[in-house]
Amino acid sequence: MLQNLLPFVPYPFVGSDEACNLCGSGQKVLICSTDRRLKPLKTVACTDCGLMRTDPMPTEDELNAYYSSGYRKDYQFAGSKPPRAHIANSMRIAKSRMAELEQWMKPDKKVLDIGCGSGEFAYLAQESGCIVTAFDPGSDYLDFAKKEYGVDAFSSRWEDADLEAGSFDIITCFHVVEHLRKPVEAIAKMAEWLNDEGVVHIAVPDMRPNHKPSFDRFHFAHVHGFLSETLEAAALKAGLAPIQSHLTTTSGLFAKPGSSHTTLTDFPSVTQSERDIWSIVILMIPSRRLFSAANGPFKQAIALQDGDAIF
């Protein structure tokens, strides 16, 4: 556990060399070599589609060990029970999510909340009259959700969740997909659980240039990084289409093609849906807004040589 917290000390993992989960390419460019703890952690972007990932990718066993023992302490400086500050912040976010989904969250709608954490959103959805099912791979915060809020929640990874196909009107997945080794397959599972006229709400951190410094934008828990274009491409590959014509942020509503919520009736190829994703990623590097000395604790020289970013 201490090794996870100490700056400059590598995380205790070996990982494996993985191809891009979105397009299958092995081509990549290094975009950052440290994380928010000032620890060595390489993040690369696929040069064919722009999806960012940790490289090497932690194995399933390594991630399971991390989440079972050190995640809450390392990522949130919290113990087995959610602290009051966490509960207050989660409730604030949950209320914002409910407001965003107000037109969908009607009484008797069947809602699935994936990665429910301490249960604030599931609780509010339940209070609104929805029939809520929730799950989370952790157990400590899940126990709090069940005891404090009385939500119908169970402990499971998404791969192991035993849920009936086509059984949900609304599926929500808030800041979960970036934690997963196989995000496209996870979104495909959401499409399987969704009914033909249902909607899925997915939100992930937006990795476009912003005010945050470089060391605050990467962490061992986030093994993938998305732009709106790569999130949309991942959803399309998984069998879901955005309700609006194209995503403009990394938070959006998706439905099955052919439903009344989207005009898309067939899927474009992954190459078509990527549009100019890589051109967006490549512009992030020389702009110096994302990984520059002004934003980060170190002076990071940025150059492009033979297709590689040198840090």
Structure description:
This protein has 311 residues and is an alpha/beta fold. The protein is built from ten helices and 13 strands. Strand 10 and strand 11 form a beta hairpin. The model is unreliable at 271-275 and 286-311 (pLDDT under 50).
Q: What's this entry about, in short?
A:
With 311 residues, the chain is of the alpha/beta class.
- Count of DSSP helices? 10
Envelope shape = globular
Number of strands: 13
Strands of the widest sheet, in order across it, are 6-5-4-7-8-11-10
Element order: H for helix, E for strand:
HEEEHHHEHEHEEHEEHEEHHEE
- What class, by secondary structure content? alpha/beta
Give the helix proportion (percent range): 25-40%
> What amount of the residues lies in strands?
15-25%
Give the key terms:
single chain; 311 residues; alpha/beta; seven-stranded mixed sheet; four-stranded antiparallel sheet; 10 helices; 13 strands; 20% strand; globular
Give the helix/strand layout.
Elements lengths: L1 H4 L22 E7 L5 E7 L5 E3 L5 H10 L1 H6 L7 H17 L9 E5 L5 H8 L3 E6 L3 H10 L3 E3 L12 E7 L8 H11 E10 L20 E2 L2 H11 L2 E2 L8 E5 L14 H5 L2 H8 L18 E3 L2 E3 L1
Parallel strand pairs: 4-5, 4-7, 5-6, 7-8
Antiparallel strand pairs: 1-2, 2-3, 3-9, 8-11, 10-11, 12-13
Helix pairs in contact: 4-5, 7-8
